[in-house]
Amino acid sequence: MLASIAYLGPVGTFSEEAAKRFAGILGGECHLTACATITACADAAEDGVAQYAVVPLENSLEGSVHETLDVLTTGLQLMIVAELILVIKHALLVVPEHTGDISKIYSHPQALAQCRNYLRRQWPKAQLLPLLSTADAAAFVAREGTGIAAIGSINAAKQYGLRVLAKEIQDSENQTRFVVLGKGAAVPGQILKTSLLFSVKNVAGSLFDVLQAFAANKVNLTRIESRPAKRQLGDYIFFVDIDGSPDDINVKIALRQVAVNAVMLKLLGSYPVLV
Hints:
The structure is a single chain. By secondary structure, the protein is an alpha/beta fold. The protein folds into 3 domains: 3-87 and 175-182, Periplasmic binding protein-like II (D-Maltodextrin-Binding Protein, domain 2), CATH 3.40.190; 91-166, D-Maltodextrin-Binding Protein, domain 2 (3-Layer(aba) Sandwich), CATH 3.40.190; 193-274, ACT domain (Alpha-Beta Plaits, 2-Layer Sandwich). It is built from 9 helices and 16 strands. The strands form 3 sheets. Strands 1, 2, 3, 4, 5, 11 and 16 form a 7-stranded mixed sheet that branches. Strands 8-7-9-6-10 form a 5-stranded mixed sheet. Helix 8 runs antiparallel to helix 9 (249-261). The longest helix is centred in the N-terminal third of the chain and has 13 residues, at 14-26. The chain is globular, with a radius of gyration of 20 Å. The mean pLDDT is 92.
């Protein structure tokens, strides 16, 4: 059966690179569909238009992608079925005939932030302008011509006929964690991680009681983050990643205790880490 994969487009994004890597791991032919937003990717998988959605979750320089966290909060059937890590190498892209100064630099907000030091040193007077993706920026520069630049990938430069003015301009080692969303079971592989979200009462000790359940059962938390619950000021949802799966006895006991102390608990998936 031909697997269908939605990703954050257009063609030439790092999300496409992640989707292609996932397709290669699945094996066989896969149909890739570019979507305009992360939410649209998730909707495609939720509605059955695509079997999987590959979306960015967090970056080693700039932290979590809030739109993906919101999708995980509101998704009715979607689960995280796999994750993969992509090394991100940004380049400064211009049209082939470009010479001289650069007045404006376009890219995704996270890409602009990930290259902050380089931009401050090399192009301090350039106006930094956000677009929906690095590939959108590359396409825009290809259309508009000289005097402007995009931050994107080497693949985007090839896709849109641009010249690479500078390579590897990210501030330091830069990795993005992508998660694969789907409605089925996790893809084949050893289950290494479990993700969940929960909320607690706004009273002293409530968050400690939940986290203590993991510590008491020797379950390692690899990530914890809060996001506003979007109900009223002071209400938060906590996202947690842990080592192991609910089939592990320690994890099973910890989750049972968390369920007692949390106001709301939602398992987001247990899954392998793909390489």
